[in-house]
Amino acid sequence: MKAILLAGGKGTRLRPLTLHTPKPIVPIFDRPFLTYQIDLLKEIPDITEIILSLNYQPRRIEEVFGDGSDVGVHLRYLVEPAPLGTAGAVKFAQDHLDDTVVVFNGDVLTQIDLAAVIALHRERRAKATIVLTPVENPTAYGLVETDAAGNVTRFLEKPKPEEITCDTINAGIYVLEPDTLDRIPKDTNWSIERSYFPSLVERGETFVAYVYRGYWIDIGTPEKYVQVHRDIMDGRFHAAPFDGAVGRAVVAPTARVDESAVIEGPCYVGEGAVVKAGARIGRHAVIGRQTHVDEQAVVEGAITWANGWVGREAEVREAILGRNAHVGRNASVGAGTILGDKSVVTDYSRS
Question: SS3 sequence, the chain?
Fold first, then answer.
């Protein structure tokens, strides 16, 4: 078996953070996001190769993961000449597929039992299996309807309240048979959700749903990106570096924290970070590697990426700071602020 990670998007909803950092390597506690998906796929011994379908800044991603040996997998990189959509990207990989393939959207974080999904697919001898997840407000998504036997019967994009018949949406995880890919036109922007899947329903092919009611999130917005960190810190999603340390302060061994600094868990202080005298790292703060938090500064509920600087007596609350961002002395960065890489907030400024 092989897996395809659809990681070619530009991450526009996360801008300015993704202007120089493709979404697949946006850091979650200093780990590239894609690492979490790879960890999940590694649990399936039958998956012998992971194909990264890329378009936006592919070289940056390859620089991080190389051939995959550092993360224990074999990676193949396929770079689309132009954005081909979710189905077009799978079609682009067709020459490398000779067996059942697992497909992941590149912005999904979940703890699904992938082996159980594959087992259902094989048991039903399905041409395709889609993972569905329930949401509280289906009007913002596309509903996927199923019958009593779990066969997919209809897709309904952004339904009106009176059209809602279920609460299950596409979770962005699929198991596909390669002989179904011939219907996708070559070198064409094609949607797996709007074109490929409806074709299976129309032709009456075996197309089944696996409903997953556990943890699932799309990290593609700043709000969800912040939520993922908090969910890991608070134990709603079990992952490094908070496995076994839920609710506590996780401080990297190479971080230098002054004995008079206040560290309030749950929070994270990365490798090589410096927290000076009298500074306070509050709940749900994430201090990226090599970031400097100066004397009497406060970082609370905020995420700072690598190599940042928070000046003396500055305050950063409920914000996101990109790489090499600099917050000057006595400056204040408030809730909802997102600073891109190398941004500078000058001394005594407010944002």
Answer: CEEEEECCCCCHHHCCCCCCCCHHHCEECCEEHHHHHHHHHCCCCCCCEEEEEECCCHHHHHHHHCCCHHHCCCEEEEECCCCCHHHHHHHHCHHHCCCCEEEEECCEEECCCHHHHHHHHHHCCCCEEEEEEECCCHHHCEEEEECCCCEEEEEEECCCHHHCCCCEEEEEEEEECHHHHHHCCCCCCCCHHHHHHHHHHHCCCCEEEEECCCCEEECCCHHHHHHHHHHHHHCCCCCCCCCCCCCCEEECCCCEECCCCEECCCEEECCCCEECCCCEECCCCEECCCCEECCCCEEECCEECCCCEECCCCEEECCEECCCCEECCCCEECCCCEECCCCEECCCCEC
pLDDT digits (tens, 9 = 90+) for 268-325: 999 999 999 999 999 999 999 999 999 999 999 999 999 999 999 999 999 999 999 9
Q: How confident is the model at residue 53 (pLDDT cuts 50, 70, 90)?
A: very high
Q: What is the pTM of this model?
A: 0.89
Q: What is the pLDDT of residue 249?
A: 94
Contacts of 103 (CB under 8 A, 6+ apart): 3, 4, 6, 90, 173, 174, 175, 176, 192
CB 93 within 8 A of CB 102: no
CB atoms within 10 A of CB 281: 26
